[in-house]
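User: Here's a chain of 78 residues. Predict its fold as tokens.
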Amino acid sequence: MTEIAEQSAIGGDRPIDTPSSDRLGFSEVAVRLADALAAPSSNGGLVVGLEGKWGSGKSSLLFLVEAKRRSGSLITAR
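Assistant: Prediction complete.
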């Protein structure tokens, strides 16, 4: 591939996985969702649905929620 072709190539639709890559403003939503999933009130069961068009950031949001969960910095109400 030529240098010009490489510069103009359209990149694939790749979900993000770090808050620093968040260009859609999902980080705050991810924090709140991760906290809700970790809350003691969800121990009895909780179902969350995520709906959106292709490319709207569904996978990115899920990856951000998982990153928050892995970080161990969840805020849970007791």
